[in-house]
Amino acid sequence: MNKELSKAERTRQFIIEATAPVFNKKGYAGTSLSDLTEATGLTKGSIYGNFENKEEVALAVFDFNTCRVTDMVEREMAAANTYYEKLMVYTRVYNDERLAAHGGCAVLNTAVEADDTNEALKIKAAQAILKWEKKIVTLINGGKATGEFKADVNAGENALAIIALIEGGVMISKVTNSSNNLQKVLNTIELLINQMKK
Question: HTH tetR-type domain spans which residues (predicted)?
Answer without folding.
Answer: 9-69
